[in-house]
Amino acid sequence: MAKQKVRYYSLNKILEYEADYNIIFGERSNGKTYSVLEYAIQNYCKTGKQLAIIRRFREDFIGKRGNDLFTPLEKNDVIEKYSDGEWTHVYYYASRWFLCKYDINEAGNVNRIVDEKPFAYAFALGSWEHDKGTGYPDITTIMFDEFITRNAYLSDEFVLFMNTLSTIIRLRNDVKIFMLANTVNKYCPYFKEMGLRHISQMEQGTIDLYTLQSEKAKDGQLKIAVEYCDTYNKNAKPSNKYFAFDNAKLKMITRGTWEIDIYPHCPHKYKPKDIVFTYFIEFDGSLLQCEIVSVNNTVFTFIHEKTSPLKDEDNDIIYSTKFDARPNWRRKLIKPVLDIERRIARFYAEDKVFYQDNEVGEIVRNYLIWCGKVV
Asked: How many CB atoms are closer than 10 A to CB 104?
């Protein structure tokens, strides 16, 4: 039986939207990064325009991480193809990537011949201030790889990203930005900051287009194209056999579905009279009702979605990321001040919190991560 050919992601569809921001997320190792790097190399060989590669930390470029980034393209002769044979490899030095080739002289020694200018630069959000005094007039492609994470984001990360873009773009309007990620966390602060309201409703293989008008009409519209990559190889990827375990989180690797942890569900049936206290969590557009329950000689917190508006915003304890001067509004659940807050936080410290479903668990998990990072 002939093997089915493995297909990889292509930029063709999203480029048709001619967007300023191109946000692409999906399963791991499906060719997202490869496709943007190929696009950038082709652009450089054709026009001399350069690429900026953004990650969170400088460590993401140190040593082999920087040296090996373009190795798959070298092996597939992409550099040789677009440079018409002038270059064959990539050389990484001092946060810059250069096209190069290797020549063997008469003595049998190998010499590396390097292009006179870099085709790509590395930028780290955590140290963007080190780059802000330098001009980059030839960078017209920007790639922010792995912008979604299941771990903590940098403090005020979206603003750091915007400052980094400002350092690169300056006063130009000829830059195309690619933001790439695996589907590891549906609750990403970039979605809210950029006004991407329909991420959770997107189906695989679809592209949504958002348009925003600049404050000055003459600046035109900002176009953001968002693609949830299709899964091309449900049965063809040879590596899938290594992830055939009964673990829902592995579907992100094999199918590109959002990675969600398994959370404990309600341990006991209870009635309204068993609820001894109620508070609320408002996070990332979701409103959750948290009930402290006493039943069957146990006390626990059960959290579920609240589908109706808050009834008493001036008295109920409400945890929210927004600032509100009312005394009943709080921001960080894990940093209690009053006795009632300490009692609430204790349920989380002792793992006595249960959830309506895994989606609700993910919302609370990301809220608690936010609590730990915000000063």
From this structure: 9
With a threshold of 0.85, does the pTM exceed it?
Answer: no
Residue 273: phi and psi, rounded to 5, are: -70, -15
Whose tokens are 């309506």? That residue is: 356
Both tokens of 95, joined, read 């946060």
SS (H, E, C) the chain: CCCCCCCCCCCHHHHCCCCCEEEEEECCCCCHHHHHHHHHHHHHHHHCCEEEEEECCHHHHCCHHHHCCCHHHHHCCHHHHHCCCCCCEEEEECCEEEEEEEEECCCCCEEEEECCCCCEEEEEHHHHHHCCCCCCCCEEEEEEECCCCCCCCCCCHHHHHHHHHHHHHCCCCCCEEEEEEECCCCCCHHHHHCCCCCHHHCCCCEEEEEEEECCCHHHCEEEEEEEECCCCCCCCCHHHHHHCCCCHHHHHHHCCCCCCCCCCECCCCCCHHHEEEEEEEEECCEEEEEEEEEECCEEEEEEEECCCCCCCCCCCCEEECCCCCCCCEECCCCCCCCHHHHHHHHHHHCCCEEECCHHHHHHHHHHHHHHHHCC
Q: Judging by beta carbons within 10 Å of its beta carbon (0-12, 13-18, 19+), is residue 287 exposed, middle or buried?
A: middle
Whole-number pLDDT of residue 78: 96
Choose from 219-223, 259-263, 357-361, 369-373 the range with maximum mean pLDDT. 357-361
CA dihedral 358, 362, 368, 373 (to 10 degrees): 160
Q: Which two tokens stand for residue 192?
A: 């809210």
Contacts with 325 (C-beta within 8 Å, 6 or more apart), sequence order: none
* Residue labelled with tokens 């508070």: 279
Residue-wise pLDDT tens digits, 252-261 = 555 556 777 8
8: nearest Cα among 321, 232, 240: 232
Residues β-bridged to residue 101:
113
Backbone dihedral region of 95: left (phi > 0), alpha (psi from -120 to 50 degrees) or beta? left
Residues facing residue 361 across a β-bridge: none
Rg (CA), the chain: 25
